[in-house]
Amino acid sequence: MRARRWSLILAAVVTAASVSLVGGVGPAVADVPVPSEDPFYRAPAGYEAQPDGTILRSRPVAATALSVPLPVDSWQLLYKSLDSHRNPVADVATVLVPRTPWTGEGPRPLVSYQTAEDGLGSRCAPSYALTAGLGAATSNAASESLMIGNLLSRGWAVVTADYEGPESEFLAGPQAGYAVLDGVRAAQHFGPAGLGVNAPTGLWGYSGGAFATAWAAQLQQAHAPELDVDALALGGLPADLEATMRNVDGGYGFGLTFGGVTGIDRAYPEKRLNDLFTGEGRTAMQASSAVCTVELIATYAFRSLHHYTIDPRPFDVPDLRDALAENSPTAVGTGSPIYSYHAEADELVPVAVHDEYVRQACAAGDAVQVVRPPGGSHNTMLITGAPGAIDFLAARFAGAPAVDDCL
Fold it and tell me: Which stretches of the chain drop beneath a pLDDT of 70?
């Protein structure tokens, strides 16, 4: 049954892409302004005084998966949150609820799904991908609508936050964590969604989405202790940014490093990371200031950070090392069961990076189920690892005991 569900969703997405390319399905790109040009995303006056997670504005939207309309009721919520300096910021999340009645035990579950936003422009955000369809095809959020569709097919509600914030601060860890947590708060308190604070709740993300999920887990006890998180699913987690960036330096995925350093510089201007770059490097940063994952990878494949920096060994520069360490998530112990999956042969994020996070989580007393398939790659594990993550969430929502490989 699980394989059939996945095949049907995949077929729908492929069909949508084929039809949309010839102009048959979905809204024209011009019909959906990018968030940076959409007044809905602008914070209202005086919002700074509101509690974190407060809904500032809402609107219904027609959600799609690569331009295929999803059979759900969906809304965008503008809500108050915090940036990495704990300054007020207005973030946006999309809430999707299946139109079919929930027939399971208890309230309808809610999954906060974090896409690997991995971009420097507002068009990389999931709220845009879910409404613009193929207009957002260069973002990971568009392709990961497949994952969101599978969650919805279970009858679960989904909230997905634009966790990089209004300035698209790629790899700014606290910004991501606060946005995720306050997005869950907003979804639970949004009356039309019919969820409520007692809904079983899980957090899930892969790669950059796992990064945001791990930061939410790290900040939850201090920032949102009232949230009852039943499960955390983390796949391909780049928990150590320096180790991950060193690994991809010179490889096909180097654009993610270049974009990540740019995003951290954007979030922490006081660190003056752009001073590490040559004139050519700063020009490249400006030229890539609004691009998404596909453009980053295509533009910077097989380059190295030292091609753009004054110092020939940029990863040894203390200011950069400190910034990367500050934005690398740490397992602090949340009491929520964790599902950790990672391909042994992952070419982008070394499996040892994720293993160290697991070691920290075990030491902090969390129950962790560890899945390490041999072979595979970072990108294939996004798909092949998803069914296990969803089964883990389903088991937690059903109250089944968690597997603990820490023992």
Answer: 1-30
